[in-house]
């Protein structure tokens, strides 16, 4: 084999090794995004598991507020059944709104606000919401890294060909200003 043949073979080997390296880094970023979404999903499951207890506690004090309680249950069921990220985000935003209505309803019932079980459930839900916010941040960071990776040159040349497509952020949408507002504490 001539020197030119060896040079061409060397260049081809380097290009193949480089392509394998880029592909593997894209796979690693996709897996980080998948794992981050699984973390969000765990927090959402804990939230969903807590809601029936919260609704039952409120039912005892505010049975005639059936519409609000049914809205919370329906929003929870929709959130559990949501198949993809976009649908899950929309359903979780609906659930957050329904929970805000539930806690606003609790303001009208001093006995409920003083109930130990309700206070404990409210505290657990606040803890889960904090963990969920951290998991969302981690997920969105992983998605940002992944999306950037597939759009950067040279990976952009073949990312789509290998099935790497942009992911959607877990965005709070229109509910963001309400969720970012610090809760007020009244004595």
Automatic annotation (TrEMBL):
UniProt cross-references to InterPro entries, sorted A to Z: LemA-like_dom_sf, MamQ_LemA
Compartments in which it is found: Membrane
Parts of the chain that traverse the membrane: 6-26
Pfam families in UniProt: LemA (PF04011)
Keyword list, A-Z: Membrane, Transmembrane, Transmembrane helix
GO cellular component, one term: membrane
Membrane-topology descriptor: Single-pass membrane protein
Family of the protein in this entry: Belongs to the LemA family.
PANTHER family given in the database record: PROTEIN LEMA
Protein name: LemA family protein
